[in-house]
Structures are given as C-alpha cells and as structure tokens.
Design brief:
1 helix; single chain; 85 residues; elongated; mainly alpha; 0% strand
C-alpha cells in the first residue's frame, strides 16, 4: 500500500499568566457591569418615555373614548344623581 507522509508536530509552550485575579478585581468587574446595565436601563426608559409622550401629543385620544375620572365631570351616559346631604 501507499505510505502516508507524516508531518512533524509543532508544540507551543503556553506561559503562565503573570497577573493573578483577586477578589477585588472580581468585585470591581461585577460592579462596573451593574452600573452599565443601570445606565442603559435609565437611558432606554427615558427614550421610550419620550417617544410615548411625543406619540401621545401627536395622536391625542378622542374625548368620547375617555372614561370620566372625576365625579365633578358630567358624563352624558350617566343619569344625574341627586345631591346627598
């Protein structure tokens, strides 16, 4: 049969890391990730709020679709009630 040509193995020696990870590094890393998540949440929440306010200003709901929110605002669908003493 045919003999296969064997290529030499190349071995790379990996050096040990010079810097050790301490508990302080871990704490600061997790704290920075938390701060970034909070900032992103605040920014995205503010952006969504701004979009909703602008949408509401450009497309106001019709007054016939709004429920009465106060007993002092007359509702044409409700019969007037007698004053209570």
């Amino acid at each position: 049969m045919f003999l296969q040509q064997q290529e030499p193995f190349i071995v790379t020696v990996v050096q040990q890391p010079e810097k050790q990870t301490t508990i302080l590094d871990l704490f600061l890393g997790s704290l920075s990730l938390t701060v970034l998540a909070v900032i992103a949440g605040v920014l995205l929440g503010g952006l969504l709020g701004l979009v909703m306010v602008r949408w509401h200003r450009r497309h106001p709901p019709g007054s016939e679709h709004l429920p009465p929110i106060s007993p002092f605002v007359p509702d044409p669908n409700r019969p007037p009630s007698s004053p209570t003493q």
